[in-house]
């Protein structure tokens, strides 16, 4: 399990806004379940499986290019 800090979630929210993505679109692109994604972005879930963190991190890295 991995704790998500607010900076990490904020980076996801900024990338989501810049790309004009819905939560479902973001979930599909990152490979994370849309319900999980919604809970992460709302702050309801702050601890996730390592695999979920890795998917989000990988997506952020590809979006930064």
TrEMBL record:
User: Which GO terms label this protein's molecular function in UniProt?
Assistant: DNA binding
Locate the HTH cro/C1-type domain: which residues?
Answer: 12-58
Out of the domains of life, which is the source? Bacteria
Official protein name in the record: HTH cro/C1-type domain-containing protein
């Amino acid at each position: 399990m991995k704790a998500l800090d607010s900076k990490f979630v904020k980076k996801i929210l900024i990338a989501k806004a810049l790309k004009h993505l819905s939560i479902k679109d973001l979930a599909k692109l990152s490979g994370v379940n849309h319900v999980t994604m919604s809970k992460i972005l709302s702050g309801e879930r702050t601890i996730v499986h390592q695999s979920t963190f890795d998917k989000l991190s990988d997506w952020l890295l590809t979006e930064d290019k």
